[in-house]
Amino acid sequence: xxxxxxxxxACRFGVKFSGEFNYTLSSCCLFFIPQRSTRPSIIxxxxxxxxxKALKLNVLVxxxxxxxxxxxxxxxxxxxxxxxxxxxxxxxxxxxxxDYLLKIIAHDLESYEQFVKHQLGNLSCIANIESTVVxxxxxxxxxx
Length: 144
Fold this sequence. Notes:
Strand order of the largest sheet: 2-3-1-4
Order of helices and strands: HHEHEEHE
Largest sheet: 4 strands, antiparallel
Number of strands: 4
Distance between the termini: 12 Å
Structural class: alpha+beta
CATH superfamily of the largest domain: Lrp/AsnC effector binding domain/regulation of amino acid metabolism (RAM) domain
Number of domains: 2
Shape: globular
């Protein structure tokens, strides 16, 4: 994040930084401070953008999962199991033909196959898994 963008976010949303970010508040920043306490939090956290290839995680897959029954117990069983799987980056409940969309990362296609066969696919509540391999990922950002 650029220093200017960091300063704008700090001023606009009252974000506090430690260490290298030592800015003083300008009059434009002071205008927003009274509004800060009445607005819900927009920035909920920060994260580091990790280069997956540096960790030899070269395959990104979206897996569409259909459960064998539409019940709370099947959903709970599936979600509890998926939370333990380190290859799964995201798990979304979706509408349509499938129940879940998983974002999965793996070292290569062979390791993804082993993951599906031995960790994900052995759950009794799963009826079907359809995988889509990502060839190129473009990172898009929301305008601030």
